[in-house]
Amino acid sequence: MPGFSWPVRVYYEDTDSAGVVYYANYLRYFERARTEWLRALGFEQPAIAEQFGAVFVVRSINVEYLAPARFNDALDISVELIEAGASQIFLQQRVTRGMNTLVEARVRLACVNLSAMKPVRIPGTIRAKINEK
């Protein structure tokens, strides 16, 4: 899949006392980019929950912090599909500033039944759309 990218501006509230983006805020940036990635594919998360009774949850994430972002930086948060299995999606995400990679993450999403919170197969229409890109 060609990469998807979502622009983010660093606000003062995103930074810590050292003036750099607080490490946990990168998780928020990654989440927003994944939401926009699904939206760009034609899927709204509330509609997935309503129509299929399923949601995507983060099963695991491995983050490498390579360089800091600072107040007012213009960043791009990317989402790149590694693999979409029957009930899981494996992604590579990056935070870049220009040509520099600041943060990298490997993300494993699980599709779970909304009421039972147990793994279920990714709905066929969603899996097909994810895999066609």
In short:
The protein has 133 residues and is an alpha+beta fold. Helices cover 25% and strands 40% of the residues.
Give a structural overview.
- The protein is of the alpha+beta class.
- The protein has three helices and five strands.
- A five-stranded antiparallel beta sheet has the order 1-3-4-5-2.
- β4 and β5 (100-113) form a beta hairpin.
- The mean pLDDT is 95.
- It has helices at 25-40, 45-52, 124-132; strands at 4-9, 54-65, 74-84, 88-97, 100-113.
Structural class: alpha+beta
Q: Please tell me the overall pLDDT.
A: 95
> Helical residue percent?
10-25%
Distance N to C terminus: 5 Å
List descriptors.
133 residues; alpha+beta; 5-stranded antiparallel beta sheet; 5 strands; 25% helix; 40% strand
